[in-house]
Amino acid sequence: MLRKAFAGSLLTTALTLGMSAGALAELAPESITTGQLPPPHPYRIYLSDVAIGHIVDGRLHVIDGKRLSYEGIVATGYTGQVTLSADRKEIFVATTYYSRLSHGVRTDVVDVHDAQTLKKTGEIEIPPRHAQSLNYKGTIRASADGRWLFVQYATPATSVGIIDLQTRKAVAEVATPGCWSILPAASVGGRFSTICGDGTLLTVSLDDKGQVATQKRSARFFDADKDPIFIHGEQDGDTYRFVSFHGDVYAARVGGAVAGFEPAWSILNAADRKQGWRPGGYQLIAQHNASGRLYVGMHDKGMEGSHKTPAKEIWTIDLAAKKRVARTPGTNAIALAVSQGEGARLFAYDGVKAAIAAFDVGSKLSLAGRLEHVGETPTQMELH
Fold first, then answer.
1. pLDDT tens figures, 206-263
2. If both were cysteines, with which of 89, 205, 266, 365 could 359 make a disulfide (CB 3.0 to 4.6 Å apart)?
3. What is the Cα–Cα distance from 39 to 116, expressed in whole angstroms?
4. pTM for the complete prediction?
5. How many other C-beta atoms are found inside a 10 Å radius of the C-beta of residue 345?
6. What is the pLDDT of residues 165-217, one digit of tens each?
7. CA geometry: angle at 371 spanning 369 and 373, to 5°?
8. How many angstroms separate the CA atoms of 72 and 152, rounded?
9. 103 to each of 18, 124, 170, how far by Cα in Å?
């Protein structure tokens, strides 16, 4: 009986294998293709993710913020810093590669990708000094005229690399000791400022070859000991706005050879201060320039060291009136970005649940939807 059962099992197996082989023979070869992205629009989100759990393999997540759907991904290497070109046609990634993944010979480059297809189209070699930091807008920026790319270096001594985007070569390195983050001027292509630890701004003006023409320091515009500002600033032409740890708004004008400033003012009233409301997050403010609205991630019961706390509320600030005009549940936001022009939409990255919340912008923010499970440890969003 055992032999008959075993023979029957062999026959069944043979028939099954024969049928499987026939089925496999009928399958057509699969052709590998690359999907085509829809044209970029003002709601496309570029979410920079340093991916701390596997930091040698960072990601740039490309999200359709209109439909709240995932579009694509760009590899950003070891702590890659990302920005778009002035004409929004290219993506620049300043990053590091090691010959043995996490060690070995170090090579720093700016990878260049087509913003429509996300394909890599080239690379620009730079000195091995690109800032290996969390993602912030000020670590890599293009000049307003599209001629230059400015890259934050740190060894940890700070400097700024100058890349000529016409020749696609690194042409200079500007020492900026004690200063961090790059703030390009809108009116002068070869000019940028950087924030210094003593509360001043250092402004660098370049000649037509990318070399330093002038380098001038401003008066102090904030007190880093009493009320330091967050490093993330929002740009409106030559004006950048910042918020401080205690909720003051600071504005710097960077169009001239020496930066100028506007008087600081607070977004808090007496009741807010009593409840301990403070700004918190990484990219914690977003500014809609046409309407003059500033959006700030806020948390209550704030204290020394709570400045990275996700938002309990998002406050809408009227810049002309210098007052709060709306309060919205904060969705644990650690990063905010708003599209410009009509039909604006505010995006908030939920740092607790790894999601993106989208708000339609009007007199008040109206939640339009959420995209769940996006990214690992992102801190920066840029919109197309």
1. 999 999 999 999 999 999 999 999 999 999 999 999 999 999 999 999 999 999 999 9
2. 365
3. 7
4. 0.91
5. 21
6. 999 999 999 999 999 999 999 999 999 999 999 999 999 999 999 999 999 99
7. 150
8. 26
9. 51, 21, 24
